[in-house]
Amino acid sequence: MSRIAVVYWSGTGNTEQMARAVLDGAKKAGAEAQLFEVEQFSAGEMEGYAAFAFGCPAMGDEVLEEGSFEPFFAEAEGKLSGIPVALFGSYGWGGGAWMESWTERTRKAGAKLVGEGLAIENGPTDEGLAQCEELGAKLAAAV
After folding, report:
1. Please, are residues 26 and 57 in contact by the beta-carbon 8 Å criterion?
2. Residue 44 is part of a domain; what is its CATH number?
């Protein structure tokens, strides 16, 4: 069974809802998946997993959350080469530039990007949560 870590940061709960739906989708597809807030997971623990779903909302000037998530992801980048990775997050303004730059950054790290990065405006609707579950299932299929 393939182990997947769903690692996220959420300020308002929107990205947490998305993370839980990604987790459900991966589990329904047969993967052994675990959910972690970014503060509960370190880059040193990555070797125990076959794939990752990373979730972070757009912050400030369309960037990743800088206190916890950005430092974690900067360290994790060096361990992503050849690894299936899905990205997701919510935003309340802008056009999703943070997701575009995050997906490009992840590709440059050598990850096997699953999907093109799922960005949902504000809180996820039922349709948005279904997209998150689908993303989780696609990630499970990639390992």
Report:
1. no
2. 3.40.50.360
- The residue written with tokens 């916890």 in the block is 68
In tens, the pLDDT along 72-123 reads 999 999 999 999 999 999 998 777 789 999 999 999 999 999 998 999 999 9
Count up the domains in the chain and report the number: 1
3-state secondary structure 20-80: HHHHHHHHHCCCEEEEEEHHHCCHHHHHHCCEEEEECCCECCCECCCCCHHHHHHHHHHHC
Backbone angles phi, psi at 52, to 5 degrees: -140, 145
In this prediction the pTM is 0.96
Count of other CB atoms within 10 angstroms of residue 39: 12
